[in-house]
Prior knowledge:
- One of its GO terms (molecular function) is oxidoreductase activity.
- Pfam families: Amino_oxidase (PF01593).
- Residues 9-433 form the Amine oxidase domain.
- This is Protoporphyrinogen oxidase.
- By secondary structure, this protein is of the alpha+beta class.
- Among the domains are: 2-76 and 203-275 and 384-437, 3-Layer(bba) Sandwich (FAD/NAD(P)-binding domain); 95-193.
- Helices cover 29% and strands 25% of the residues.
- It has twelve helices and 21 strands.
- The strands form five sheets. Strands 8-7-17-18-19-16-20 form a seven-stranded mixed sheet, with helices on both faces.
- The two termini are 14 Å apart.
Amino acid sequence: MIGIVGGGIAGLAAAYRLRKRGHDVRVFEASDSLGGLAATYETNGDDIERYYHHLSKSEETIVELADELGLGDDLEWRIGKNAYYVDGVVHPLDTAWQIAAYPHMSLYDKFRLGMLTLGIDVRGGIPDFDAYEELAEYEHTPIEDFVVEHTTRGVYDNFVDPLLDGKFGERKHDVSAAWFLGRVRFRGERDLLRGELLGYFDGGFAPLIDALIEAVGRENIQTGSRVTELDTEGDEVDTITVETAEGTEVHEVDSVVVAAMPNVLEDLTGFECEIDFQGAVCGLATMSESLMDTYWLNIAHDAPFGSLIEHTNFVPRERYGGDHLLYVASYVQGPHEDLWQMTDEEVEDVWFDEIEDMFPDFDRSAVEEFKVSRNPRAGPVYERGYLDLVVPYDLADDVAEGVYYAGMASEAQYPERSLNGGIVAGYEVADRISRRLQ
Length: 438
């Protein structure tokens, strides 16, 4: 049997691939729910993710998986309207005309930024169309140095720097230009007349997780089952110990996939991962009226949140019983931050005080319900030299033969964490296990 530690999308994807190839698998999930960061809330209609989700056109593996599971026709590509809130004004930034009209950068700033997003280096006057293909070349370059050199100081100060504040806070100067370039490349297809195309499933991501569970086989998945020990004999994995409500179980295994955060891997094997993670505090407001006409609003000033995402400006609110659904999201760089220490009620008060200041016409009584989700390890801090810190898929040389890793610290989650990256990581370890067992 192949034991899989973690019932998030990476663990389920690994189990799915291995089952398709005829292997006996068992997924062990410590909590009572599956799907990890794709877990959901109930609404007055379709379920919705606790943490905002959508797909970019660059995420091809998850689209292929949806097709295999019979959900290809349920994936809808919609325009996600983006904007930037600067000095009390919402500036749409979807079409070429809106970008041209943005007043906080010069025309030359916008030209240089546009060339960078297209992957073209125009320094020296001769366009280089292949300048940014090798991300590793910029692994040790600070983002500020890179952006100022390859675009302008105005682009960094008036556009990039506020975004980094919202994403990485006090750690922004540690992050590499390789991440920045990769993040630009990660973004999807853009219609210059309408905006960026983003994907979302009819019914949300829950049907995809459910279909994956059914494909793996519910009889092959145990929730409420925490793997507490991984034993090796002769430098090869031998058994795993699992704690459940009924007691302790010991399972013989041919291989083990740790599809969880690296702290779980360290607890089980002693393998130390040096990647730092940031936490997330994400609120979901159910409202009787809309806040704005934008899907994704980035904030340029020092707000107590990084972005406002009105989901029902992307997916029709009729799917949620007619309610308007708004995510309020912020990253935290550690438990020392005030936001992490606040109660849910304090978070709501602080956040909506700011929203009322930003949108004076908004009636706070329109908020009918507000739920807060927190995760201490929502994503990596993509610091300089990050690729040297990723955990290998195959840990035979570091731990024991038959031990594999498919969690958030894997290479598949670079340059940006995503559900697609989780599936890629799951497939990568499944392929390696199949080759080994054959």
